[in-house]
Design the sequence.
């Protein structure tokens, strides 16, 4: 059967501990003998809290801060890279040494205190298959034009900071660009002297187009490293834009000679492009 009341021993123990606690409290109030113990306990609490914080909270804060600063740095680098590419595009068109200035009718320009302004739009790369570009006959890429307008960009030329890369051939969600190296692409080109013209076809190889001509018809000698320019005869590309240089010449037979032209521009270099209607 359970006891209903405490025993004499339990009462005695209770009185003893009450008396002992009161005595300790009295001594502490009157003499401060326990002050060092209290200070040591407070110091232990503070040290324990600091150590626990350094071990648990601070590493998490450091990781979050580092992650945040890293993402900010990545974003800043991206913005700086795009700004630099835009600057290069502007310089490509604005430079008075650039081939665009050979034909004064190519681009509408405003002249004000030696500063030129051009009408072109900015586009960003959405997709390109580098493996397809380096191995196969069909070379395409897709771009998104920054401006939200109702303009039709089909047949507009596309260039990057190095030069011409192709022309827009279709639009749906993004604009499809037919690259110069696609085997279905044809580009009327000429030497700077305007004494030699031919239609350069895409070679299906990255960085090269092929110009085929009959040496019995065109007797003008073509040499390696000579520079070819757009002739303006196709109605798509403006006249006198530098395209590339002769890398090799192959005489197939008496009626056919192939000129391999190394292009100046690589569409894989950069994510920002200019779009220009001519």
Sequence:
């Amino acid at each position: 059967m359970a006891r209903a009341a405490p025993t004499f021993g339990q009462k005695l123990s209770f009185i003893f501990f009450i008396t002992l606690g009161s005595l300790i409290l009295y001594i502490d109030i009157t003499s401060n003998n326990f002050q060092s113990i209290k200070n040591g306990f407070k110091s232990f609490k503070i040290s324990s809290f600091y150590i626990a914080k350094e071990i648990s909270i601070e590493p998490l804060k450091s990781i979050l801060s580092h992650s945040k600063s890293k993402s900010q740095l990545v974003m800043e680098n991206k913005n700086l890279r795009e700004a630099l590419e835009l600057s290069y595009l502007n310089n490509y068109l604005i430079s008075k040494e650039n081939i665009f200035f050979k034909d004064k009718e190519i681009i509408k320009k405003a002249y004000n205190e030696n500063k030129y302004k051009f009408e072109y739009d900015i586009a960003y790369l959405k997709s390109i298959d580098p493996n397809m570009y380096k191995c196969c006959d069909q070379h395409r890429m897709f771009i998104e034009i920054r401006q939200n307008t109702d303009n039709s960009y089909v047949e507009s030329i596309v260039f990057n900071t190095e030069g011409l890369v192709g022309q827009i051939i279709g639009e749906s969600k993004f604009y499809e660009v037919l690259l110069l190296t696609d085997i279905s692409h044809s580009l009327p080109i000429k030497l700077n002297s305007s004494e030699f013209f031919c239609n350069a076809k895409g070679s299906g190889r990255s960085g090269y187009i092929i110009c085929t001509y009959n040496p019995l018809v065109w007797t003008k000698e073509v040499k390696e490293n000579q520079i070819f320019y757009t002739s303006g005869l196709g109605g798509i590309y403006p006249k006198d834009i530098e395209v590339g240089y002769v890398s090799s010449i192959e005489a197939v037979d008496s009626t056919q000679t192939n000129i391999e032209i190394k292009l100046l521009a690589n569409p894989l270099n950069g994510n920002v492009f200019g779009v220009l209607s001519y």
Q: What stands out?
A: The first helix runs from residue 8 to 31. Residues 113 and 171 are 38 Å apart (CA to CA). The two ends are 108 Å apart (CA to CA).
